[in-house]
Amino acid sequence: MNNFQIQKIERVLEVAAKLPGYQGRFREAEICDPNGSIIPNWHANFQRLRPLEREEIRKHPSLFLANASDLVYRGMTSGSQGESFVYFAGEAWNNARISARQRTLSGWGIEENVPILNVASRLFPVRLMDGSLIGQIDREFIKLFLSLLQNRFRVIRGYPSQLCEIAAYVYRRYFPQVKAVICTGECLFEYQKDLLESVFNAPVINEYGCQETGISGLTCPEKRCLHLDQERCFYEIIDDELVTTDLFNVTMPLVRYKCGDILELDREGCQCDRRGITAKIKGRVEDKIRTLTGTKYTGEINLPSLAGILTYQVRRRKHKQVEFLLQPTQSDRLPLEDLKNWTDPIFGEIEAQIYVQSRDIIETKSESIGDREWIEMIGDRPWNEWLNSPQFPIGEARKIAQLLYELINPRLILYSGIAPSTRELINDILNSPSCQDLEVEKITARILLFSCSFLAADPQIYSIYHHAAERLKRTVSQTNNLENPLLLDLLIPSLYLEENLARSLWNNYLFEIKGDRLILDRFNLQNLLYSFEPAWRLANRNNSKISQSLRPILSLFIGDLEFFSSCFNLTLLAYWCHLVHDREIVNLGVKETSDRFFRVWLKWRKAMLENSEDLEQYFANLQSIAETKEEKARINLEQGYYTLFLNQEFNVREWLKILQKYVRLKNKDQSDRVIDSAPWIPILRSLAQPLLNAGELELAYQCLLLSALPSPHQSSFDRRSKEINKKQSVISDLFVI
Fold first, then answer.
1. Which member of 290, 401, 538, 671 has the greatest number of CB atoms within 10 A?
2. Measured between alpha carbons, how far is residue 128 from residues 23, 100, 115, 419, 488 in Å?
3. Whole-prediction pTM value?
4. Residues in contact with 713: Cβ distance below 8 Å, sequence separation at least 6, in sequence order
């Protein structure tokens, strides 16, 4: 423990000493005095401090929450054997994470401007220039993978097992120069390293990390030893298991935490010029396999390269039965002798079952339906049904259906923008002639308008919008019926386009609207939901008082739409535009509608936007007309917004009762809650720290859990990556004694 670590650990201990999860431990180890203050010579007793098991914090994470206001990072542990939990970290921790990553990558010549592609994994992009390619490894996946290497990415990162599967598919194929291959999330074995180096003609970097404890490390370029970053963590080994203390997380401190990894530390370090300890990864606590010399951790077993075999997996099923899944270089010749020479010293005499996996790239099949049937399906049914069982039309609508699928269920995840292949598809559609079927032409225009929310910061958005608008006008001219849902699609981009263009949209199309109330179809609803994210970013840039006080403003959009979708009025869209741009885009006033609550509510919200001196009266008017259960719940929500807008403190006890009534903080069965928690996020986030100060740790933690911002883009990543791109051990024992 060096001076830097002592200073950092002492700060963490000072915070942790006040937490119920640590107080008993600290007293047992005599780390603190009877008043809970850390004693001057605490480091003499530090190793007496009882380590923290993952299961303990998983069961009661709120006992370890120290701060509910310094929240920059929200993560979830990997969840081995169901032991996952959500953890939080602050700004200092996040800055240390980013700088440590760049510091270690620069040792390999991977500078900050070099984009990294996470491949076939559950790894989200780390930096703005990074990306994640996810989903089933099929022909389209490989095609996009090679295209991305050609046009953008120079470093590949992923789980070794999945990277080797891709390497087997592209074996002996030409592709662009790769700067490095980073393996993470699983033990890296010798044969995997050899295969990846030979196929990609690039060095293989072994990365080790455990996000919740701040552990990070990469192998060095010179000796290929795994260096652990001692500037973020203090490391110990107890009974072969790694025990760490995070030096930076004072939001949710983890002191002497057992993350479940088995490592062997080498404190003498590497023979390169880098200081600090190095380590060898042996595996996870639960990952063991029986051998002739006893039960071993998977990382202790050497899986060598075998002539004629690209990649393989080993599964021990019974005492003398092992199965092998092989991908040979040639399907007509299996090097069984080499395989036997390797298995005999490890397993002895066994019954070997060998399964040869084809190196042919699979082609994902999808069902086909008629154009009109597909249009009706996405118009009438939840889109998740289509995403889970994709059906594509066989006629003119096929390309536009493919575009919609790629937009809402993308293989390539970027912080902003779309995949190059998706852009090519858009350009192909833009350059294609009009569809003969007017319904197909109409849905083509609507989907092109929908795509604009994915390209809010892209210069091409304007040409796409105008092209789609012209196609829609031509379609309407043949039917003499510009339906309100179509007009709404034309106006929705005013939420995120720059001010002058937003005004022009309203000037061009407002006069076409027939009546005050708009019946939203399913496409309108989805278009609005996806438009809220770029609108939210624009609102933050424009920095209006309401967008800053009711953060995140995205939750306000979602709540408004959820509540008023049945009586949707253009004045609501105009109000959102005013909120986003911090100035009035179109003056619609508050049009008369049959819904009195909506009229009075909108007057109240507009008064808030204008910071009216009569705000209190407007709110009193709204309170006085609330009649239904839902309207009364809405009054409570608006009261919370009002409190935030005035920058006043919440009455914790009063608001605790409100939240328990509507959001069900303590009740896991939330089937009877009045409305979704998304609109309450600004209030939940603001209440978390006061609840923590009042000793309501569990409620504070629940507030933070429920404050996860809903995002269609994040949801699509989670859906595709969790279903397919999972970690897997290439050597396993299904019946460990």
1. 401
2. 40, 16, 9, 14, 32
3. 0.88
4. 413, 533
